[in-house]
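Input:
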Amino acid sequence: MTTWVCTKCGFEVKAEQQPALCPFCYAPTHHMIPKKETEPADEDAKKD
Ligand SMILES: [Zn+2]
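Output:
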């Protein structure tokens, strides 16, 4: 199961496949992006 996030309104949808549109604001499918389950710590920022 993937959590999809609408880049337009921030609405989250859990679905196997990318939703055809945002059920909240009806943004087109390209606004629905997979939400990262594990967010990396600031490793890039710690590079010296
Ligand atoms: Zn939306």
